Amino acid sequence: MHLTPESKSVLDLLLAGNTVKAESVDIGPLDQTGQLLLELLIENYDQLHGDHGAQQVEVLLNAYERCLSAKMEAKSPDSAPPQSDVREDQTSHQDSKDSVTSTQVATIPSFDSACRWRLHELKCRSIKGVAPRGEEFSFSFEGKSTLLFGPNGSGKSSLLGSIIWVLTGLTLTDTPDQQEVSSIYSRTDGTTRGSKIRNWPTICTLPETGDPATVNPDSMGLIQLTSFDGKSSVYLKRTIERELVHHNI
User: Fold this and answer.
1) In this structure, are residues 123 and 222 in contact, taking their beta carbons and an 8 Å threshold?
2) Chain segment 7-61, per-residue pLDDT in tens
3) Could you tell me if residue 42 is inside a domain?
4) Could you give the number of structural domains in the chain?
5) Are 125 and 208 in a shared domain?
6) Are residues 57 and 147 in contact, defined by beta-carbon separation less than 8 angstroms?
7) Whole-angstrom Cα distance, residue 11 to residue 21?
8) How far apart are CA 238 and CA 204, in angstroms?
9) 60, 151: one domain
């Protein structure tokens, strides 16, 4: 992978956990998982560049799994080096300890902490960008790490936004200003915007037929979370009235 000095400088900053400014957009700081994925993208760039679609995903996942396996082997008691009987002075022992710790932190992020709940399934209706109004859409995550990929406008952000909406009641938008309600205007013969019809929830799909002034917004999101040990599940459901209900099993 050939990098210009400018590109290498940006990547080095991101890998070190810093923030990079690109005009009005701030990139980073990346968490440890993000730094690892960026490092793997750089290392496997040539192969990824020659592949397409699912092949790129497979290459990246395989590299990610190899890295995790290496970390687990490094932590295994069987792989630990035997302790030496030779006494060391306090200074050299501390220097050695600091060196090992620094190397581990710099190359392999920690994945020891686990989430209590895992996302198992999503069901939603009339969520903007996911499916047409009134049509129910389902997506199974099966409690696993999931990589979403596709062209711009295919619904990746909208799918994630529906999960965020269920959990928080907030709508994911492309603008820095959070807007839960947008205004609908009538069409006119020119470029001038017509008169305002009504306010409409940003999360909700617009009606394809009928008068928007008389159509009631109808969005629903339901997610199933499973516990880390797989012994229990919780269902969270939100409607356009922003009422969140939950049910444990």
Assistant:
1) yes
2) 888 888 888 888 888 666 778 788 888 888 888 888 888 887 777 777 777 887 8
3) yes
4) 2
5) yes
6) yes
7) 12
8) 12
9) no
Contact, 14 vs 35, CB < 8 A? yes
pLDDT band, very low/low/confident/very high, at 154 (cuts 50, 70, 90): confident
Indicate the length of the chain as a whole number. 249
Residues 75 and 134 both lie in one domain: no
- Peptide bond connecting 29 to the previous residue in cis, omega within 30 degrees of 0: yes
What residues are paired with 201 via a beta bridge?
181
Cα(200)–Cα(218) distance, integer angstroms: 11
Residues 208, 138, single domain; the answer is yes
Which CATH number belongs to the domain containing residue 185 in this structure?
Answer: 3.40.50
Q: Taking Cα atoms as reference points, which of 206, 233, 232, 231 lies closest to residue 218?
A: 206
Residue 195 lies in a domain: yes
Residue spans of beta strands (DSSP E) within the chain: 20-22, 25-27, 117-125, 136-140, 181-185, 196-201, 220-227, 233-239, 244-248
Same domain for 236 and 130: yes
Domain of residue 190, residue span: 117-248
3-state secondary structure of 127: strand
Q: Are residues 209 and 138 in the same domain?
A: yes
CA angle, residues 235, 120, 166, in degrees to nearest 5: 50
Q: Which residue has the tokens 């957009």?
A: 25
**pTM (two decimals):** 0.53
Q: Can you read off the two tokens belonging to residue 53?
A: 């679609």
| Domain assignment of residue 9, yes or no | no
Tell me, rounded to whole angstroms, the distance of Cα 215 from its chain centroid: 33
Structure confidence at residue 220 (pLDDT): 92
Peptide bond before 82: cis, by omega within 30 degrees of 0? no
